[in-house]
Design brief:
mainly alpha; 79% helix; globular
Length: 203
């Protein structure tokens, strides 16, 4: 099942659309919190702070977009206000766990070094996904003339991906190999998430 085939159904129903936006907001917020949790209190860099701040802004921006679908919809991240709530919360956490497991096994990393490496690889994989997901969503919005738009997020996510590549180049000469492993892990989890989204629309 492809996301592009699900989105028209979601966008056509204001309540579903609000829950979709809320789900994306939850995931952006989860990502921002994970970046903040990985920060070293002394050596945290400008780029990491910038990235965490922008992910939080994306979560807020998506929440604001919900207002364009109707009043009083999806006030919190409670399950009834999300699509595929359990898996939407599981997806990023599991990606973190699986990438950490890979780094421990392949590179023998622990502690601070493990947290930083996981931040790099998990965030890279998510930025690759965002670079695909948000344009597909924007195309679906444009096709029906929706008031909702995510163009500002698309621009910032493109910048994030470039920043992550620069950090990864400093991290390891084999960064592309390790980054691809993270992307492979994420792809499996994302495909499962899309299936769960489809199932939630049928129930």
């Amino acid at each position: 099942m492809e996301l592009s085939t699900i989105l028209p159904t979601i966008i056509a129903d204001n309540e579903l659309h609000a829950r979709w936006l809320n789900t994306l907001s939850l995931m952006e917020n989860t990502g921002a919190r994970k970046i903040s949790a990985s920060e070293d209190p002394v050596t945290v860099t400008y780029i990491i702070l910038k990235h965490a701040a922008e992910e939080h802004r994306h979560a807020f921006y998506l929440k604001k977009q919900i207002e364009k679908t109707g009043e009083g919809l999806c006030p919190t991240y409670s399950g009834e206000y999300l699509l595929a709530p359990s898996y939407s919360k599981y997806y990023l956490n599991q990606l973190d766990v699986d990438v950490c497991r890979y780094l421990k096994k392949e590179l023998g990393l622990t502690g601070r070094a493990l947290r930083f490496a996981a931040y790099l690889l998990v965030t890279y994989a998510i930025e690759v996904r965002a670079d695909e997901l948000y344009p597909v969503y924007q195309d679906a919005l444009d096709a029906v003339g929706s008031k909702v738009n995510v163009k500002s997020i698309i621009l910032e996510e493109e910048g994030h991906l470039e920043e992550m590549i620069n950090q990864l180049k400093s991290f390891s000469p084999d960064w592309q190999y390790h980054a691809q492993k993270a992307v492979d892990i994420e792809t499996g989890l994302f495909n499962d998430w899309v299936l769960e989204l489809g199932n939630s629309l049928e129930n």
